[in-house]
Amino acid sequence: MFKGSYVAIVTPFKKAEVDFEKLGEIVEFHIKNGTNGLVPCGTTGESTTLSYKEHEDVIKFVVDKAAGRIKVVAGTGSNSTSETIEMTAFAKEAGADGVLLVSPYYNKPTQKGLYLHFKKIAEEVNIPIMLYNIQSRTAVNMEPETIAKLHRDCKNIIAVKEASGSLEQMTRILTLCPDIDMLSGDDALTLPLMAIGGKGVVSVVANIIPKDVLSMINDYSAGKTEEARKMHFKMFPLIKSMFIETNPIPVKTAMSILGMCDETLRLPMCSMDDKNKEKLVAAMKNYGLKF
Q1: DSSP H stretches of helix in the chain
Q2: How far from 46 is each of 42, 79, 167, 278, CA to CA, in Å?
Q3: Domain for residue 54, yes or no?
């Protein structure tokens, strides 16, 4: 069900409020550029600094604006099982095509706790679920055996966004459950992951170069491996520039430079260091972006 280029979209702000006008332009931009799906309210969307109402408003706005023209996978995960169930139920009611559920952060649950957390959500809300494994943000790695057990026991847990950075782990997951839809959580590993059976990416860099990310995925899927490899190497320096500071600081700054939205972030996220911004601008110019 989940394959291709899904974009973890930013949440644009105007002063202290969500800028829904710019958010609408972002949705239309990705529809125009052929993006397969949008992921609002994820890490890149600064979900942890949105109020509950803002979280719901952003999800509903993106779903309504997309109007069935593009898939919407709403970020509804938190470190509270009950809150995750509530937000996931809202996303289903709003019409989202699926939800992205990050591992509970700060709590540091055991593998049994992770299993019970996701199983409870899957039982309570019948909507397609993409697990999100990112130990660098959550402190706990979701082990391949846990993912495989969830996929086996819960019919609506059908995908995983893998951001462990480990192709070995990704291989182990696909060995245990080869039919799961695995998407890369790291733009730099999209092509290597597809080589072992991955279906695509939940991308950060596609916020600014959606056609190129999609082109690489489509070329590889069509057997045009050399074309895909060339695009991978072309994008690589720009991808690295997206992470010279904590995501989404660089990508939101890049979008501001391109006139796509304001660069406003919410504390504790803050504006880029000047030297890092110079590196970002250089990477964008070297890539050929016009601004």
Answers
A1: 20-32, 52-66, 81-94, 111-124, 135-138, 144-153, 167-176, 190-195, 210-221, 225-241, 249-257, 274-287
A2: 7, 15, 27, 23
A3: yes
Using one digit for the tens of pLDDT, what is the confidence trace for 161-193? Answer: 999 999 999 999 999 999 999 999 999 999 999
Tell me if 47 is assigned to some domain.
yes
The domain that contains 51 carries what CATH number?
3.20.20.70
| Domain of residue 146, residue span | 4-224
Total domains in the chain come to 1
Residue 207 lies in a domain: yes
User: Which of 22, 60, 161, 199 is flagged as catalytic?
Assistant: 161
For this structure, is 287 an active site residue? no
To the query of whether residue 277 is one of the catalytic residues in this protein, the response is no
Q: Which of 22, 60, 65, 132 is catalytic?
A: 132
Give pTM, 2 decimals.
0.95
**Residue 43 within any structural domain of the chain:** yes
- pLDDT tens track for 36-89: 999 999 999 999 999 999 999 999 999 999 999 999 999 999 999 999 999 999
